[in-house]
Amino acid sequence: MPPHTGSDAGQGLWQACVEQLAQDLPEQQFNTWIRPLAAVVTDDFSKVTLFVANRFKMDWIRAQYAGRIAALLEQLYGQPVTLELALAQREATVRTYVPPLAAVAPSAAPEAPLAAEEPASAGGGFKSRLNHALTFETLVEGTANRMARAAAMHVAGTPGHLYNPLFIYGGVGLGKTHLVHAVGNKLLADRPEAKVLYIHAEQFVSDVVKAYQRKTFDEFKERYHSLDLLLIDDVQFFANKDRTQEEFFNAFEALLAKKSHIVMTSDTYPKGLADIHERLVSRFDSGLTVAIEPPELEMRVAILINKARAEAAEMPEEVAFFVAKNVRSNVRELEGALRKILAYSRFNQKDISIQLAREALRDLLSIQNRQISVENIQKTVADYYKIKVADMYSKKRPASIARPRQIAMYLAKELTQKSLPEIGELFGGRDHTTVLHAVRKIAGERQQLTELNQQLHVLEQTLKG
């Protein structure tokens, strides 16, 4: 019989390893190969045995993941750990730790369960592919997503009327997928017989290819043209796929004609989409287009506290503020930071504090501090707007220079820990009130000007690597 796990700390070691793998690996890989593993850890932590369902999986995990898992266990424990793989025996009774899905599943865009595993909606056994945990109730509201959330709730309450199609855009990990799932879940709660389908754009592409290969376009059209609500993620993936764009255009027209609703997401606004036919772009832009911004500080704090509670952990407010100030870009990164802190706390059996958070996130913080500096922001913005870096410090005031300078000041305030006087000093000794004016001006215009918002998204993604 395999050895028992000697203590909760043994379970904590494997849990910490799993939570890191959940963050590092693509979700489908993680769910297929890592999540089903059961682990047994010896009392002295010298050996971890992973039990695998069959020999094929054992060979694949040994070839693809064993080295990474062993290195990660050694990094977490601080000493070499022997890793063994064994076939799981149904009759064997072993004390194992299997991580709960809620603790390790990446938060954004959870892959829909296989159709056979998903309970059918009432509409004739139709499979919606919805994640039922992603609802309006579990979405933290803030200035960054308020307009998009209000529009989505309106669509869920009265589909087929206003805001059709609803086009939601924003950067990675800001909650677009959560929002579209929430629309579907709300509609099905009100109308269980409705035909609702959530898919990623790549799945639609795949369905078009299969229909083309198998000559089953009648079945394809029956499936897509009969929907009451189509929710489709990341339509930028339609770029350069002419047949897919043609079929989506046909489905789009058919659904609008029968007053069905379409909700789409993208990483950019409709007219910013590249290599997509103009007639399709004009359809995307014909309803309501709303942006989701990176969450503001208070919203990031609320997200951290709420998600910690969902994991049965209490995060003190001062720790949440510390993390929120250092992890600014999106909800996915926030949740990744939270997972690291919770794993570090459980493994070391210490309460969550700012010092513990600093230790748990030391790699993330050192990378951030090394990559994003005011000087780096000035160079990136100058390159983007085709001006000289020296213009950032100069007293010149033509609009072609003053505008990029204000944008650089805004990004310096958003992406670094520098104070207003420190930023002013780095922009040629300017007063802190000048910096404050620039920050407020660009922040205000970002809400109003789609083109500026898109430029800022590009600059932020460039700076964050």
What is this entry, summarized?
The protein has 465 residues and is of the alpha/beta class.
How does this structure look, described?
With 465 residues, the chain is α/β, with parallel strands linked by helices. It has 21 helices and eight strands. It has helices at residues 8-24, 27-34, 55-64, 66-77, 101-104, 146-157, 176-190, 201-214, 217-225, 242-257, 278-284, 297-310, 317-326, 331-348, 354-360, 362-371, 374-385, 399-415, 420-426, 432-448, 450-464; strands at 38-41, 47-52, 82-87, 166-169, 196-200, 229-233, 261-266, 288-291. It has a five-stranded parallel sheet with strand order 5-6-7-4-8, with helices on both faces. Strands 1-2-3 form a three-stranded mixed sheet. Helix 10 (242-257) links the parallel strand 6 and strand 7. Helix 12 packs across helix 14 (331-348) and helix 19 (420-426) packs across helix 20 (432-448). The longest helix is centred in the last third of the chain and has 18 residues, at 331-348. The radius of gyration is 25 Å and the shape is globular. Residues 1-6 and 90-124 have low confidence and may be disordered.
